Amino acid sequence: METSSPIHELVQNAYQKYRELNDGAVATYIPELGKANGDHFGIAVATVDGEVFTAGDWEQEFTIQSICKPFAFQMALEQFGRDATLRCVGVEPSGDAFNSIELDPRTMRPYNPMINAGAIAVSSLIKKSPVEAGINAFVSAMGRAAGRELRIDKDVLFSETVTGNRNRAMAYLMLNCGIIDEGVDDALQQYFSQCSMLVNTRDLAMMAATLANMGRNPVNNDRVFDFQYIKDVLTVMFTCGLYDYAGEWAYHVGLPAKSGVGGGIISVVNRQLGIAVYSPKLDEKGNSVRGIAVCKELAAHLGLHAFEFTNVGSSFMQWLKED
Ligand code: DON
User: Fold this and answer.
1) Count of CB atoms within 10 A of residue 309's CB?
2) What pLDDT, on the 0 to 100 scale, is given for residue 1?
3) Whose CA is nearest to atom 4 of ligand 1?
4) Half-sphere exposure at residue 233, Cβ-oriented, CA atoms within 13 angstroms
5) What are phi and psi of 54, to 5 degrees?
6) DSSP H/E element including 319
7) Rounded distance between C-alpha atoms, residue 265 and residue 304, angstroms
8) Quick one: average pLDDT of 126-152?
9) Share of the chain above pLDDT 70, in %
10) pTM across the whole model
11) Residue-wise burial string across 258-297, b where 16 or more C-beta atoms lie within 10 A, e elsewhere
12) Whose CA is nearest to atom 1 of ligand 1?
């Protein structure tokens, strides 16, 4: 089935074009991540009609890292609503690195849920007692979006936990400011566990396509997410998903997206596609070098930018069907 679609060809071409791109470096600040093979490179594109197109090492598992953040934000909105969630975290781009130890001085909240401080505030909200219950709820929801059971990499979790003092500092700052409750260790365990969940590139494309498909997994039609909050999530992905590269990303690619230091990146074409790339060599801002190149390429070829003048993107599925 894959060979009959123009997407198949685009995915294969992007893979061939960028497999020789070797810039960047694998993250090592979490020591276990340093074991990743920098040559690995996978691409997956899932349509809201349930087709999936893959290339390269798409079956290779890696930890989701910060790509867990938009999904955790979705879960917080579903469980607590907008008002209570936004009392703990803002929706303003910080323009700073993902691990900055800072709060918005006007509100004393973390700037947004895509940076570490905001994600820890969200984890504090969705954690449960016992802590395993909140972690299992997250992993189970993500598995439904991916369409298969997912699990946590215990070695990465250990590595994150023992080296996560910067995140610990942010959490205690937020406790001091009344943003999170005194269950600081549980909030951090929830956050570290979310980041340590194993996925492959296809899983990420399915998770992105579930957001694109108004919360339903496009293959089995499982209603995973409450669609009324997806616009909140896609908005912060659009404005804050790539941290201090978010403006450049919006300008060049024009799609909601999220990257992770494990080497994954997702992009959502609302009502149409989920795009995922895995390549663990990162640029200095913590984003996958090949991941950015592939997303730029696909967005340009398919006219996916939100403000594309030719507007091919908005009629893309129609165009595919007519082809
Ligand atoms: O908290 C951390 O530093 C990691 N667990 C996640 C950071 C991350 O993926 C940043 N993304 N580019």
Assistant:
1) 7
2) 46
3) 65
4) 32
5) -130, 160
6) helix 316-322
7) 16
8) 98
9) 94
10) 0.95
11) bbbbbbbbbbbbbebbbbbbbbbbbeeebbbbbbbbbbeb
12) 116
